[in-house]
């Protein structure tokens, strides 16, 4: 049996272990260890490589970005900044067709620029936006689907944990990945807005329980507008954080790690100034930061060990030769790769897909002349779609569990996210065909 055959068997074994319920980190460690042992027929070498990977895998200063951005996102979440952002967006867009749906997308877009975690956005806006949309005559399932669909913006609009993980795995600049995500993220948000307005105009009963009543309420002038001072007060913390973190990052004043530290400190000041952070909440935030960060860093060590096993097996070079020999050009390979990720998204979570696929695909993409930052944005968009596709659809399940409404089934929420999936597929194709969308500011 050749080393290539062993490599392919080990990848299949990895996917099988994950599907059987083994945690992805343990599955990566196990498969990589056994693979090195079998391929080199040397148990001692497997142990030495494991020791070397554990020591050097996350020793770089760059890895401090992960706990810092996680801490910033959690502090923002407990500060009720998401609620205030939605309230201002609701006020400004109340006369627009599907105004509350558009307000949810707008608030998610701004919120994503300081959290970077889709699940956090889904949990926050389920509590804030869904009750408000339902109260104003929107179908509960559509309201929940809008929150789930727009929450994926947190994975693309920088700073994003998925962009950080991809940058580490593909060995490209994390700051560059953040810049590459700006235009595609805005395209996605704009596509969601256009879809919501169009679908409400063409199929109002898909969105609204009583379209005539909602239209009359939308055009009613008998309401008390929110004072401008209140709007500014509600928006100023999140705008200040966005300018502080992303402005400093994009101007080159901060490195990604420094931006994470400054952002976390700024988020702490916001939480304290709003008196939303007592000792108990601070302990919970610190504990969650530790749990999430350690989990991600352990995954990255495991992925590094897995990558070394793949290199020993010669798998990336062999797959690159197969792709070249099959007649796939760079674009054909990119679409084939995206299709595999879409299928994996139905059964695996986002981080697992990146950890399994990027170590294999990134060297091939580089060898075919593809820009790894453009390739990374296509990867993240494809992975994002998996957050909404059944049977896994973690964003949908997060919204369903947070909502806890027996009258709104998970199947109804999945159906309501279908228009969002369609928009994401269109943006995926467009970004793949037009690399400049990701490399415009690089």
UniProtKB/TrEMBL annotation:
Protein task: Part of the tripartite ATP-independent periplasmic (TRAP) transport system.
Name of protein: TRAP transporter large permease protein
One Pfam family recorded for the sequence = DctM
Q: How does it assemble?
A: The complex comprises the extracytoplasmic solute receptor protein and the two transmembrane proteins.
| Family classification | Belongs to the TRAP transporter large permease family.
Q: Which UniProt keywords apply?
A: Cell inner membrane, Cell membrane, Membrane, Transmembrane, Transmembrane helix, Transport
Compartments where located: Cell inner membrane
Q: Which GO terms describe its molecular function?
A: transmembrane transporter activity
Keyword Transmembrane listed: yes
- Domain TRAP C4-dicarboxylate transport system permease DctM subunit positions: 12-436
**The UniProt record lists the keyword DNA damage:** no
Name its species: Antarctobacter heliothermus
- Record's bilayer topology term: Multi-pass membrane protein
Enumerate the PANTHER family for this protein: C4-DICARBOXYLATE TRAP TRANSPORTER LARGE PERMEASE PROTEIN DCTM, SIALIC ACID TRAP TRANSPORTER PERMEASE PROTEIN SIAT-RELATED
Membrane-spanning ranges: 6-39, 60-82, 102-130, 142-169, 175-208, 235-253, 289-315, 372-393, 413-434
Q: Among the entry's GO cellular component annotations, what is one?
A: plasma membrane
């Amino acid at each position: 049996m050749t080393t290539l055959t062993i490599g392919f068997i080990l990848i299949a074994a990895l996917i099988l272990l994950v599907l059987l319920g083994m945690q992805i980190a343990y599955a990566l460690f196990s498969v990589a260890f056994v693979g090195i042992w079998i391929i080199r027929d040397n148990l001692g070498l497997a142990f030495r490589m494991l020791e070397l990977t554990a020591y050097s895998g996350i020793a770089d200063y760059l890895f401090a970005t992960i706990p810092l951005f996680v801490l910033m996102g959690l502090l923002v979440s407990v500060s009720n900044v998401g609620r205030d952002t939605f309230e201002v967006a609701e006020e400004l867009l109340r006369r627009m067709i599907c105004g509350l749906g558009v307000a949810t997308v707008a608030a998610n877009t701004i919120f994503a620029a300081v959290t970077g975690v889709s699940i956090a956005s889904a949990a926050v806006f389920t509590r804030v936006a869904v009750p408000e949309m339902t109260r104003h005559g929107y179908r509960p399932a559509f309201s929940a689907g809008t929150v789930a669909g727009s929450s994926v913006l947190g994975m693309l609009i920088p700073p994003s944990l998925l962009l950080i993980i991809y940058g580490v795995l593909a060995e490209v600049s994390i700051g560059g990945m953040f810049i590459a995500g700006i235009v595609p993220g805005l395209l996605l948000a704009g596509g969601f807005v256009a879809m919501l307005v169009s679908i409400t105009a063409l199929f109002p009963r898909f969105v609204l329980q009583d379209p005539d009543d909602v239209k009359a309420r939308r055009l009613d002038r008998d309401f008390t507008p929110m004072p401008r001072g209140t709007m500014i007060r509600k928006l100023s913390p999140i705008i200040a954080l966005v300018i502080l973190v992303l402005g400093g990052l994009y101007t080159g004043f901060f490195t990604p790690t420094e931006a994470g530290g400054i952002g976390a400190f700024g988020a702490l000041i916001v939480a304290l100034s709003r008196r939303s952070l007592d000792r108990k909440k601070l302990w919970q935030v610190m504990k969650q930061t530790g749990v999430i960060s350690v989990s991600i860093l352990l995954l990255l060590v495991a992925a590094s060990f897995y990558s070394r096993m793949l290199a020993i097996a010669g798998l990336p070079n062999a797959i690159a030769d197969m792709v070249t020999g099959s007649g796939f050009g760079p674009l054909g390979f990119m679409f084939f790769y995206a299709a595999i990720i879409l299928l994996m998204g139905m059964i695996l979570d986002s981080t697992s897909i990146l950890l399994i696929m990027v170590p294999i695909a990134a060297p091939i993409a580089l060898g075919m002349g593809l820009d790894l930052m453009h390739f990374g944005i296509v990867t993240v968009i494809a992975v994002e779609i998996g957050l909404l596709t059944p049977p896994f659809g973690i964003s949908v399940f997060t919204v369903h569990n947070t909502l806890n409404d027996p009258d709104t089934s998970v199947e109804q929420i999945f159906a309501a996210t279908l228009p969002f999936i369609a928009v994401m597929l269109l943006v995926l194709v467009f970004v793949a065909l037009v690399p400049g969308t990701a490399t415009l500011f690089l």
